[in-house]
Amino acid sequence: MQERRVDVAIIGAGSAGLGAYHAARAHTDSVIMIEGGPYGTTCARVGCMPSKLLIAAADAAHHARDADAFGIHIDGHLRIDGRDVMARVQRERDHFVDGVIDSVESIDADQRLRGHATLESTNTLIIDDHTRVHAKRIVIATGSSPDYPDFLKAAGDRLITNNDLFYLDDLPESVAVFGPGVVGLELGQALSRLGVRVRMFGVSGGIGPISDPAIREYADRQFNTEFYLDPEAETRHVALIDERVEVTFIERGSEREVTEQFDYLLAATGRPPNLEGLKIAHADLRMNEGLPVFDRYTLQCQRQDGTPSCIFIAGDANAELPLLHEASDEGRIAGDNAGRYPDIRAGQRRSMLTVVFTDPQIAIVGLSWTEIEKRPRDSYAIGEVNFEHQGRARVMRQNQGLLRVYGEQGSGLFLGAEMLGPDAEHLAHLMAWCHQQRMTVAQMLEMPFYHPCVEEGLRSALRDLNGRLRLGPAMAQHCMDTGPGS
């Protein structure tokens, strides 16, 4: 077996691993990056980018169907060619993947090692059966993989995850989606708009990352106008019958038992960290519910005795914030600290920003409702705007949604927001920037708002919040932001 000795070993060449590699290289050339799977990152290969490609196709179909409302009439029957849709998804997906592969392969070949890593000790890794790596410091950036409960396995080879969906040659006729989280909502709605019969089943009552009950209730109603969604479904039976997935469930509303068959069952029930095959027990790490205990500002793990370890963990592997920009940030922090060890530095963590690319879009900024409601009730206030009455949204026929903004009593500090509505990806960025700058609601209202635009809806919500914080006049009614001086 080959023996290698390095200052820093990084397990994983995804978004976090690449960030860790480049940060560690600023301190030492003795770095090796280990990858057992295909290069290309989860985001580029089976996550962010192919899902947005599918959503873009779905949006095109949706806008074509809705053109009549604008007086634009498309003659004849709208035809969606599933093979053409998937061909473009795969073609553009491969373009993004190739870009990542080129970036990885530009790294010195001596600093890349192929194979699956397992921990032999705190400072030693075994790579398959060919290499033992002795590393002074280790960064775990192994990412995550789809997982699903055992009862779904009854769907046999018709059980797919997002890792499989983007390799289909054609759109299916029907799909049962289990899990109305971020992945399930995005893919389920996109498939529905592309003509696929979709039924979506949840268990806990959750819809995406939404925690604000008012917004969750609105989202439940809105998504059910397009496809069947039961966030608290009672599923009685799953079986594979003649190459079709048979699902028996209690139908929402009627409470009768229904059995339907589908081409596929799409499991979108979570992505736990890839730690199981790492033999992490050999690393003398303090664990909590199967995950290493770590400092979120340094990404440094703890030994079992509570002292700092020479192992760092970043990205989806630590299960804290499974978002690409967070994985990249964490990778840079972990790699920087592994490179400069033992001179550990706290890295900057950005304001929380989550976006779900459904229609209407979902966004969470800063503190979520779950975090807000833990505070004393008289310490915060809530402002809101309903986009059904917002001028620009109504012009575009995108006037569905609700924005709720949270502020701190006394200081007027902007605390956070949850939203379902048009252009949420853009409004969320504005709010996240304000939150990170620790702006007050009054300071946000001093910023320019052009007319007419959806951003004026944010201004309405902030005005409402400012009044409820007793820092400005109460709003007599929510204006429609349709004229000068509004």
Describe the 3D structure.
The chain folds into three domains: 2-145 and 272-340, FAD/NAD(P)-binding domain; 150-267, FAD/NAD(P)-binding domain (3-Layer(bba) Sandwich), CATH 3.50.50; 353-468, Enolase-like, domain 1 (2-Layer Sandwich), CATH 3.30.390.30. Helices cover 30% and strands 25% of the residues. It is built from 13 helices and 23 strands. It has helices at 15-25, 42-46, 48-66, 82-105, 162-165, 182-193, 213-223, 324-340, 369-372, 391-395, 424-436, 441-445, 455-468, and strands spanning 2-11, 31-35, 112-114, 117-121, 124-127, 131-140, 159-160, 174-178, 197-201, 228-230, 235-241, 244-250, 257-262, 264-267, 287-288, 291-292, 300-302, 308-313, 353-356, 361-366, 380-386, 402-408, 414-421. Helix 1 runs parallel beside helix 8 and helix 3 (48-66) runs parallel beside helix 6 (182-193). The longest helix has 24 residues, at 82-105. The chain starts with a strand and ends in an 18-residue tail after the last helix. The model has no long low-confidence stretch (mean pLDDT 95). It is an enzyme of class 1 (oxidoreductase). Keywords: FAD, Flavoprotein, NAD, Nucleotide-binding, Oxidoreductase. Pfam families: Pyr_redox_2, Pyr_redox_dim. One of its GO terms (molecular function) is flavin adenine dinucleotide binding.
